Amino acid sequence: MKARHILLFSAVSLLGLSQAALLHSQPYIDSWSTVCDTTSTGDGANSWGGHQCSIVRNSAGAIYTVYTVAGPSELKRAFRVVRKTEDGWETVAQGPSGREPAQILIGPDDRLYVVCWPDGHPKLWESDTDGNNFAASDIPGNWDPGNNWPYFSTGIDEVGTLYVLASGGGRPGYFKLAYRSPGAGAWSDVKKIDIDYRYCYTYMAPQAGHELHLASLRDVTWDELGYTQPAGAFDYCFNAVKSWYSPGLTSRELTETLIREEKPTGQYPNPNISFNYNGDFYVDQRGRSHILCPVSGAGTGGTARLVHYILDGTATVASVELPAAIKNGRLIQNEKGKFFLITFKNGSLVVYPASDANGVQLEAPTTISLAGHTVLYSNLHLAAPRCGVPLSDEVDIIFPSGTSAEAWVYFKLHLPEGAPADSTLLPVQDIRVYPNPVGGALFISGLEGHAKITLYGVWGNIVFYRENNAGYIDIANLPAGVYILQAEASSGVITRKIVKR
Fold first, then answer.
1. pLDDT tens digits, residue range 272-300?
2. Torsion over CA of 91, 383, 366 and 309, rounded to 10 degrees?
3. CATH of the domain at 456
4. In a 10 Å sphere around its CB, with 0-12 CB exposed, 13-18 middle and 19+ buried, how is residue 199 labelled?
5. How far is CA 186 from each of CA 140, 179, 189, 444, 496, rounded to the nearest angstrom?
6. What would the DSSP string read from start to end of 13-43?
7. Domain housing 255
8. Distance, CA of 184 to chain centre
9. Alpha-carbon distances of 456 from 10, 35, 217, 459, 498, rounded to whole Å
10. pTM of this structure
11. Which residues are CB-neighbours of 6 under 8 A, at least 6 positions away?
């Protein structure tokens, strides 16, 4: 807090009391610093993957970040952990990182943890409680030896249980997951979780008691999905996001929920969900998970829209399409639970406060210059709870910049204090779709107000559409097979897989 008190005194002296009070009522940034301007560039390098844990703050206010520098090959990159000082940034640890950038987390006792994947196997670097004297150890288990690009993710809960996840396969896919208990530091066995396709860029938000929240982007080739690759499209199709939840991973399996799928159509043959870089995943103070999902395709009329999904475990709470001007974003709360949506555009940071306890009623934004910097490729990285940093009215942020993401730039964002004006939580949507499998009439209950009902075939073609909710649809004339039902109403959007007998 000392640095903040100095800043406030300066603001009062130079601006006068009334202007200083105004400063406190609006978000503002300070402590600009270029950490490094020679980071590794290219695919899989320092700026890769918006899910990365890249910056933390300890209980005394010391700031640490990790970045990647080039090595003799893209498989031989190296990481550096640096700490902010009055004069700049000092290196406190370094080592081999492999192809993907290392990730940094912090425990409740201020120990730092760096996870990296050199030579096709995961490795942990652990500091003492002063953030010094790092010791390296292998993370044990069957992690597919030799896999140099595991799309790995990390997270830590409030008691210090550390989680590591890797993605694999194609069709089918899988996650491999292990956790390290605090105290004794013993690792669990590696748990393999089979899924239908490979999902990558996995955001992980563990909670105490082995409660686990995940969200991830489908990442497979067009032909694995049964699609024809459009001319000029990337070889991999990024058109679906799912979440996974377990109230207690040690005794229960993860439950999967489809959040959004955009199938190719004749008019929109190349749908895209850029959850890997421009979206976010956040678990709030009430334990609800929030997914910011950038979407383009038939469901958005071909335009890119950012959609805010809220889940309570596996139950849908809301789905809100944000204003068209908002193309990317991160979510965070201050100490008293007020939400802020942090986005960027044309060299500016734009901060939207939310007046409600759900984070969806956005207030007028504050636009702040990024001092000539441009955010490149992998979004803003926040010191957030999933990295081990408790909520605060100050948020430490790092991002890639420069001409090709060779710069690593830091600033501190100060959030206004205070709780949301409305503390009412949105209720869980009680929507039922039955029977399933179905032969004729498919009943839909629980939708509020005017509804749009769309039924998609397995190739993404629309086989049924109606803009009113009569409580049921008759699909007796449709061929037997698998369909996707999407129902959109004022309470949000639901998606269900339907089997027609």
1. 999 999 999 999 999 999 999 999 999 99
2. 150
3. 2.60.40.10
4. buried
5. 10, 8, 10, 48, 40
6. HHH-HHHHHHHHHS-EEEEEEEEES----ST
7. 26-414
8. 30
9. 60, 49, 20, 8, 10
10. 0.86
11. none
